[in-house]
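Journal club prep — side note

Before the paper discussion, L.F. wants everyone to see what a predicted structure for a comparable chain looks like in token form. Sequence:
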Amino acid sequence: MPSAMVWRIPIAASSLAMVRADSGHASSICMLISSPACHSVRRWTRLSEAVRVTAMSDQSIDLRREIPRVVAGATDSAVRVGRVWVDDGTLCLAIAPLSVVLEVAMASDGGRAYRNEGAYAFAYRAPGGFFSRDQMKHLDRAIVAVAPVLAAAEFDPRRDALATDLTGMPDFPTPYHRDHLRREMALPTETIEAYRRDGHVLVRRALHPDVVRAAEPHLSEALERWWPEGLAPARERADAYARSFTQITDIGQKEPRVAVFSRARRVLAMAAQLMGVDAVRVFCEDWLIKEPGASITPWHQDAAVFPFDAEATITCWIPLGQVGEGQGLLRFARGAQRIGLADIENINDRSEREFTDIIRDHGLPVDDLPPVFPGDVSFHDGRTIHGAYENVGDTPRVVLAIHCFADGATIKTPKTPKMREILDHAAPGAAPGDPAVSERWPRVYGKDDLLPETPTIEVEGDAGDAFELEATNLEDGVPVHLFVSSGQIHRRPIAGARPLAPQGGFVTSGLVQSHGHVSYPHTKEDAVGTEAWMNERRAEYAAIGVLTIRDMGAVDDAICRLVDVPGLPRVHGCGTMILRNADWPFTCTEPDGLVRACAARVEAGARWVKVFADFTDDYRGRENSGFTGTDEVSYPREVLAEAVRIVHGLGARVAAHAFTQAGAEVALAAGVDSIEHGWGLTEELVDRMAEEGVAWAPLVGIATPMWRVAHRDRQPERAAWIEQVMERLARLLPRAEAREVTVLAGTDLFPEVTVADEVAQLIELGLSPAAAVGAASWVARTYLGEPGLEDGAPADLVVFSEDPRRDPTVLLTPTHIFSAGREVVPLVGHVRPSYRTFRQRQEH
């Protein structure tokens, strides 16, 4: 089916009003409809579709994109606009490399301004001091360029919201997507053994769900373009095979964007590991759409039609969306690969009966694939007898099945007309004994290949200037010579790259907020859970160099659906945090509901599940005792341990909020992956964390505001308890570093406490400067599976003129920030109020 047209429907300007659709997102109204020159009815509703609405002045002008464009043109790119946002009735533009915030208000308000242009008054905030004459000239040119754009849009910052395309179809592939899809993952030995024993295995989270979600709408559009003409509904088709699904083959050979996904080195490397081979070829790429009402897929063996003898064959079965009971899940005859190939080629009612007899005669158990979610991949041997159940649901089951074989196969004598037809089409003229080599059967993976041969797809934000940087890598102190182009880091020289900064600075691969709350302040009455709100908060983080956020609790699971956007931090979401207290605006989860609640977070797309291992009446400062009074362990150890087991089985990790010793003891006994706060830890528990590989986010930066509030509210016991905790942590943190516990820098509160503040507090409590800065950057990125400064990685870069290991306040003043190759303007001095470490506050 040809691609759909996009119609934009303007909305009359008014005060900001969000009309919630099923997705809860806010953006311009976007309605996808079929072109009248094409089919009159779409073949299926795309999994990611939703209607999204926001009010603004003129939907035809996207100010977030148009303003940077006109400023770059007016100044010959001498200055650039980074973030564009509205704050309390003022339009704000972050200008690089001046580190200026240009503020635009209505001139009719009569406020102080640097200059007026038409109906708009322009002022600026510049913490860096005075500008040169050339810089002022560029600033003036930018103002003159922006004013007519605002006038054409009839934009009034007191009234209008900015439209954003972030809630529309996401870009794919971004530099992060490309890096993830090419990055190999070693499978556990038990997974490989299970596959070779049973003939099939399910790998949870083989791909990150956010990558699959970003790719899905683009893949769906490609399927529409290649949808067979005149195809009858599934129930009305002539034979059992046709009634089981619609099959579209080898789109990746025709469309490079599809090939980025269908030739993912990450998946093909897993196939090689399971087969036990060094190189892999693709036999074909099948897109299998089992529409509502489609019947069972009869029993069959994929390798029955292969016109070659191969050392091993495998099928990688990748769902593009959630597939639950009754939606066409697979069924396998366990161990069938050991009995070889049957002389049954066609897939029909007869094959269903004949294979049923074989399964019975050999006493093979039948395994049902459990419900699967985006990112899961099921693998089965080409000789495994398998089929699929009918789809009795109301949505299509869309799956990519990549049929692979070990490189080195040889052509065999075709046994059937179908096998002869396949051979003549793929390798005409090939004779028995010839190598099974063909353009139709490309070699897609080699263990020793330096780089995957996947096409580069240019998406918005990739193209642009190439940059060159010579600086000291903060991770190892070694000078590096880097180039940035097409959103990626390159170690080889790139012609025409312009120097990004003077030599002699310091660079790291982006700061990490390892315990944040993007939808803070956790009030369901506010719009904090909307994509618009969360993306604004992400932009605030990016402006101080935080390019990865491990979100440790949101008002709902919408955060798990945030996609990768160059220029914004990537979010490792946990969805709704789980606790046992009715006073908080979250679901109060009793022990008998813990396992189901944890599973629901992962099914919603969470990479982490956050569970409160303890909770006290003192948590909000309502008591004077500190965390020593009515301490409560939220969940029994055995219940929490079962929840951890389920979450791990679904491919996610568990973080435990634990302020008390009892909470930490239960959490560690249950097998959690990280301890959040951990203010009740002991030396013995720290040693146990080292032995079991449990990370620690101590969140010490919040001690200062907690202590200050305790004094303000005249709670001396609470203040004394905080002082005792800081003394304890000053002993435990050096011990944790010595025993190589992964320490993570998180702040809990933002912008009240920044990552830089947390680093300063960690150093004050005895962590070495290198370990403290690493906890906010490369150590955390490695722990979260984010790439560093290696060749081909997404260009996440934060550059400093001074060494933050000598002075952690340097982290507040980055000179350059790149997020997946997109430049972000640093906001110096405008992010949060002044901060003092705990000892500084006490002395003050």
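L.F.'s comment for the group: The domain at 175-228+238-439 is CATH 2.60.120.620 (Jelly Rolls). Keep this in mind when we get to the figures.
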